[in-house]
Amino acid sequence: MRFTWTELHGLRAGSLAIDRLVKFGARLRPGSRLLASVTRVERAIERRTVDPAKDGDFAYRLAESHRTILEFYIISSALNEVVGVDEKRLSLALSGHDLPEEDTLTTGARDAQFELLVTALVHHAGIRDVSVGEPDIRIKAEDRCFGIAAKRVSSRRQLEKRLRNASKQIRRQDDYGLIALNLDGVIDPIYRLHGVERARSAFHSLVLESHDFIESHGYSGHVAGLQGFATILGWESADGNAVMGLEVLSHSHWVSPGEDLDRMRQFIAGRGVHLQDRLAHLFNLCA
To answer: How far is it, in rounded angstroms, from Cα 207 to Cα 251?
Structure first.
């Protein structure tokens, strides 16, 4: 999925997200990451033009601000539709620093943010019975309930640790589950250094590598499959002006074979088109 994302998109999406969060009861403290992101977008609008080549630090921080706004815009759109989302978890997600690499003491804020994002995405995929619960999220696919372990990978060397932890979380439920992997922390540096084609290739390779790890370490008895996510937000030219290009990468691998999972696999696979349509609608609302 690919879109053009402007400063006005970011400003409108940020305003909607803040309004929804406040109505839900979340406390947005002064200087919180979402408020700071909206402020940075307002500064970019006042500047009229952003030159990524001449002002690389501001452009990079602005791109991360748009990522924060985009994800909380999606999260906030499903807050009243998901069971178990609490203000404490939202407050944690809203904390943290402007850039992922500045979260040197803990990655808890962005980890919580990804869990909430996956919860919202599952809802927007058309799955109505969604709740927050072990391993991270519980959903119902037709007549079967199962869990999703949502893990954010901030570096390549962290991948196996995250996969191992997610697999153990699912195994403790004594039933099948899925792993959702956020690979932004690995893909974004590749994109900024080598471009979009290399980033896409690396993304698909990492999802396949993750699949192979699950199979080779004996976790496939409980891990039914995994879904990789990454968002590329980068600068491109349109009519002589720099605008944001937004590309959402998504790729799945089913691990466990067996007829008992065929219906679940078909049900989940059928949600993909629904999710794309719903995201396109959400993006159009803030155009």
So the answer is: 7
Q: How far apart are CA 163 and CA 160, in angstroms?
A: 5
Sheet holding 177-182, edge to edge: 2-5, 241-254, 223-238, 177-182, 144-152, 137-141, 130-132
Answer yes or no: are the C-beta atoms of 249 and 228 closer than 8 Å: yes
Closest CA to 238 of 20, 24, 1, 7: 7
Residues 130-162 as b or e (16 or more Cβ within 10 Å = b): bebeebbbbbebeeeebbbbbbbbbeeeebeeb
48 and 215 in contact (C-beta within 8 Å)? Answer: no
> What pairing do the DSSP bridges indicate for beta strands 177-182 and 223-238?
parallel
* Nearest alpha-carbon partner for 113 in 180, 166, 30: 180
The one-letter amino acid code at 70 reads: L
Q: Are 33 and 98 in contact (CB under 8 A)?
A: yes
The predicted-structure confidence for 18-67, as pLDDT tens digits, reads as follows 999 999 988 898 889 999 999 999 999 998 777 777 888 898 899 999 99
Q: Which amino acid appears at position 4 of this protein?
A: T
Q: What are the tens digits of pLDDT across the range 183-212?
A: 999 999 999 899 899 999 999 999 999 999
Per DSSP, what are the bridge partners of residue 230? 249
Pair 158, 174: CB distance under 8 Å: no
Length, in residues, of the chain: 287
- Which residue type does 216 have? S
Q: 265: burial class by Cβ within 10 Å (0-12, 13-18, 19+)?
A: middle
Cα of 175 vs its chain's centroid, Å: 25
DSSP 22: H
